[in-house]
Amino acid sequence: MSSTPYDRQTSFALFSAENPTSQQSGTDLDAEFNAVKLAMDDTQQNLAKIQDDDGALKRGSVGQAQFDSSVTLGFAAPAQWESGVLYDANISTVFYNSIFYIANTTHTSGVSFDASKWDEIADFTAAAAIPDGSITSVKLASGAVAGDKLADGVVANSKIATGAVTNTKLADANVTYNKLDAANVAVPLANLLFPAGALMPYAGAAAPTGWLLCYGQSLLRSDYPTLFAAIGTTYGSADGTHFNLPDLRGRVIPGADNMGGSPAGRITDAVAGMDSLGDSGGAQSRTLVTANLPPYTPAGSNGSISVTSTNYTAQSTSPISGSAVGGGAQVSVPVSPGGLYGQLTSTGSGPTFTGTPQGGTSTPIVTVQPSLVLNYIIKAH
């Protein structure tokens, strides 16, 4: 701030002394008055910079640089209150819980803040309360808020407008899981990893949150709309408002033979009694019947044939004929003219075959593969 110095242009007294009968030059008078005006205007402009309209020193016109080093302002620059610090009366100032204090007693601070040793200068509590959602990206200059300017935990989700913090605003690896709200993040994240209808073995006795055990229970469609949209009534339904979960009690899970629309022919309805999504079949044991055995011809040997003869008296004048015991060739005995007299008696028994019982007692065959029993759970939402 500088002023134009007034430099007198003409000495009117000298001119009059040297030229007592001459008139003063109007041009010289104008030049002189103009120089005076310029100096006065410059002075008024500079004075307005340090003086208010009421004549007092202009507010804000004097700063620390205007004072000599021997001059103090009466109190030190404020800092956050800390324990174990020596504070000077009427000098030391602190911030505590958004209130500006000056010490009224020289003391060393204890473990907790003692309000009796401080006088309140200003309360910034109201100023510190930021309305929810008021901090938007347009309110912050690029790079204005650095990480070291924010105390841990001071930025709550409610203070940030929706969409204000985009992916480009976050430094890589700066958002850790403990900074996320589990209630609002864990469930959506789980839904991305495991969609409704996802099925998995589970070693626990009770299903975790968001999952259900699969024992064929009936559920309301309105309670589980996402799950119903995924599996529908494939596994049955009680009525038009319910649907059933898969009943996996005591069952293993094969892949649907017609998965993708092209049958593989590995598990067919004709043989296994199941092949499509939702079909069930199989049993833990089977009883073999004759039809399950390959064809075979049994082998064996006959016992001996015995013939017993007894006396028999016969007399005939005609030839005697008959058949062998058990069937066979005809036997004819000629008789002489005088007749025949003799005795012949024979008895016999046919052959017999005796077998020995073989095999077991028709006990069903266990068909269960080596197994470990677990629960099955399905993603519910």
UniProtKB/TrEMBL annotation:
Domain of life: Bacteria
InterPro entries attached to this UniProt entry: Phage_tail_collar_dom, Phage_tail_collar_dom_sf
Domain Phage tail collar: 197-253
Annotated coiled-coil segments of the chain: none
Pfam short name (any one): Collar
Gene3D superfamilies per record: Phage tail collar domain
Protein name listed in UniProt: Microcystin-dependent protein
